[in-house]
Amino acid sequence: MSRIRVAVAGASGRMGREVVKMVLEDSGLELAAAVNRSAGLDVDAGRLVGLEPCGVMLSTDLEMALVEQKPDVLVDFTTPQSVVANTALAIRHKVRPVIGTTGFTPEDIESFDKQCKEQGIGGIIAPNFSIGAILMMKFAAQAAKYYPHLEIIEYHGDQKLDAPSGTSIKTAELISQNRQELRQGNPREEEKIEGSRGGLYNGFRIHSVRLPGVFAQQEVIFGAFGQTLKIRHDSYDRAGYMPGVNVAVKKVMELNGIVYGFEHFID
């Protein structure tokens, strides 16, 4: 069986380097291209991630890499500002997108699903590829059937560009599938400082903490008479996302259209 050829966008970023390393260490995958807009000249992708030279040099032009190297899959961990254009470019060249970057609207996802089906390819857009984080979302969605009063608190480093996180939004979406809209709290509640109660989603609140020294954590707190339930997931290293990315790269070869959310691949 031929190896899956993988291009990585954002290859010199912190997540991108982990993806490059994961691809190079999997005998079923082949690194076809490593792209970064600010890539230095004559940088071997293998050396970039602390491995032996692999012969794939960092490039700055994504479209050229897609045309010349003809990868099967594009893995994107870039920025919300560039990911939509990158995804459109991949689909146009019949390259299957596996996207870990946030920044999509529901309309974007619907449009890309249609484009993928027209091209006869699949794609995966997932706010989080951590298996532990996905289990946290699933457990929270189950708990919401019995504990409809809840709040979400997510913690990230102070350089994160979006708030709330894509993971917390996806968690809220899954919870809302099992919970009717319920306006929580005192109806006469008054915020003395605007925004102090967090963002409102389907009647419950999402709070975003941004501090240096924090990597990625999220907890869902459920409240009921005489008790609380907390479901929490903590990430400490970007390598923890790679088993999920690896699964996605292989699963996307079997898909037709866009699948939104990695939870669809965890029973």
Characterization of the model:
- Keywords: Amino-acid biosynthesis, Cytoplasm, Diaminopimelate biosynthesis, Lysine biosynthesis, NAD, NADP, Oxidoreductase.
- NADP(+) binds at residue 37.
- Belongs to the DapB family.
- One of its GO terms (molecular function) is NADP binding.
- NAD(+) binds at residues 10-15, 100-102, 126-129.
- By secondary structure, the chain is of the alpha/beta class.
- It is elongated and about 65 Å long.
- Strand 8 (199-201) and strand 9 (204-210) form a beta hairpin.
- The strands form 2 sheets. Strands 3-2-1-4-5-6-12 form a 7-stranded parallel beta sheet, with helices on both faces. Strands 8-9-7-10-11 form a 5-stranded mixed beta sheet, covered by helices on one side.
- The longest helix is centred in the middle third of the chain and has 14 residues, at 106-119.
- 31% of the residues lie in helices and 25% in strands.
- It has 2 domains: 4-125 and 238-265, NAD(P)-binding Rossmann-like Domain (Rossmann fold), CATH 3.40.50.720; 131-235, Dihydrodipicolinate Reductase, domain 2, CATH 3.30.360.
- Helix 4 packs parallel to helix 5 and helix 6 packs parallel to helix 7 (166-178).
- It is built from 8 helices and 12 strands.
- It starts with a strand and ends in a 7-residue tail after the last strand.
